[in-house]
Design goal:
Blueprint: H1 17-37, H2 47-99, H3 114-125
Helix pairs in contact: 1-2
């Protein structure tokens, strides 16, 4: 016997900007340390300055991009909910229309089920 599957927990809400801010601060601190070393930094190690600049730039980009990402995801979720609600309303209307239809007194198919009736007639004659 299979054990019943537990429902998935709701997604945890977090502030995704915090890691981006902390990372940017770390890259900024590393950049300051490297710049303070000045000429004592060997020529072959100066590329680390550009690594810090790149890390800082990516962190600032993330700080600006994350709120937009969350906003777009929320908008997409809302559009999906509206689309599902619209489909459900259309299904209900279609179901009510079929429920109100009376069968054909001659014993023919119920309105809205003609394709099934056609298939049955074809298989019986063929």
């Amino acid at each position: 016997m299979r054990r019943p599957q537990r429902p998935e927990p709701a997604p945890m809400q977090t502030d995704d900007r915090l890691p981006a801010v902390l990372g940017s601060l770390a890259w900024a601190a590393a950049l300051v340390v490297l710049l303070l070393r000045g000429d004592s930094l060997a020529e072959q190690d100066r590329w680390w300055i550009w690594v810090c600049v790149t890390g800082l730039a990516l962190g600032l980009f993330a700080i600006l991009y994350i709120p937009r990402l969350h906003r777009k995801r929320a908008e997409a979720e809302e559009r999906g909910r509206a689309r599902r609600a619209r489909r459900e309303a259309e299904r209900r209307r279609a179901g009510q229309a079929l429920d109100g239809a009376a069968p054909d007194p001659a014993g023919g198919p119920v309105p809205g089920t003609a394709p099934d009736g056609e298939r049955a007639r074809r298989s019986a004659s063929g």
